[in-house]
């Protein structure tokens, strides 16, 4: 598998100790890129995230992983993903104890007849509760507009908005080509 990994703004911002040894968090070698290539790759990743609206959310508590199919919307810059759930769910309890999450977005429906062209985007993220009521109301409305089927969930008294700040992206472009971009250090999220 051909792997390209980059760190934005630099390896010193990466929260994984392997980055100091020129490895990404998955243990793959970091490859250097031509100057100016990083923004194009990041733009491609954000475009894929914004073009879709369903993902798999992976949470973990007590070393027990949990996956959920979720509807989402993104912030305008594509670096925060907003989902909704009820506060009495396993995923919300997991998030309350461990804010680190992973999201998976893919194009398998678009390329069902040519699987070699499927792209998958893994998003490493951090659950950061919304502190601004106006922002929460705006994102809830965007979720309602994009996903009318979850209006009942959004109106439920135990409804919780789940903002996920993007820490890194891993894009698989077909079965052989991978690109990794660290967007934000966890300490800065």
CATH topology: Pnp Oxidase, Chain A
Largest sheet: 9 strands, mixed
Assigned CATH architecture = Roll
Q: Rg, please?
A: 17 Å
Given helix and strand content, the structural type is alpha+beta
**How many DSSP E strands?**
9
Proportion of beta-strand residues? 35-45%
Please report the first level of CATH classification, the CATH class: Mainly Beta
What is the string of SSEs from the N terminus onward? EHEEEEHEEHHEE
On the 0 to 100 scale, the average pLDDT is: 83
> What's the total helix number?
4
- Number of structural units classed as domains: 1
Could you name the ranges where pLDDT drops below 50 across 5 or more consecutive residues? 2-35
* Assembly form of the protein: single chain
Q: What general outline do the C-alpha atoms trace?
A: globular
The name of the CATH superfamily reads Electron Transport, Fmn-binding Protein, Chain A
What does the secondary structure layout of this molecule look like, with pairings?
Elements: E1 2-7, H1 37-51, E2 54-61, E3 64-71, E4 73-74, E5 80-86, H2 90-97, E6 100-106, E7 119-127, H3 133-146, H4 151-155, E8 159-173, E9 177-182
Parallel strand pairs: 1-9
Antiparallel strand pairs: 2-3, 2-6, 4-5, 5-8, 6-7, 7-8, 8-9
InterPro entries: F420H2_bilvrd_red/Heme_oxyg, Pyridox_Oxase_N, Split_barrel_FMN-bd
GO cellular component, one term: cytosol
Protein name: Pyridoxamine 5'-phosphate oxidase family protein
């Amino acid at each position: 598998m051909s792997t390209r990994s980059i760190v934005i703004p630099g390896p010193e911002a990466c929260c994984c100790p392997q980055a100091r040894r020129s490895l990404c968090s998955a243990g793959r070698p970091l490859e250097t890129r031509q100057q100016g290539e990083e923004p194009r790759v990041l733009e491609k990743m954000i475009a894929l995230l914004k073009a879709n609206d369903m993902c798999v959310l992976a949470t973990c508590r007590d070393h027990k992983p949990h996956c959920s199919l979720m509807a989402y919307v993104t912030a305008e810059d594509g670096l925060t993903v907003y989902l909704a759930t009820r506060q009495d769910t396993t995923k919300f309890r997991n998030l309350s104890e461990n804010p680190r999450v992973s999201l998976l977005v893919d194009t398998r429906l678009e390329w069902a007849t040519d699987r070699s062209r499927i792209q998958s985007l893994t998003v490493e993220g951090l659950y950061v509760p919304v502190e601004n009521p106006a922002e929460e109301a705006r994102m809830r409305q965007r979720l309602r507009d994009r996903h009318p089927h979850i209006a009942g969930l959004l109106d439920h008294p135990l409804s919780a908005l789940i903002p996920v700040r993007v820490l890194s992206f891993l894009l698989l472009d077909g079965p052989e080509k991978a690109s990794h971009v660290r967007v934000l250090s966890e300490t800065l999220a």
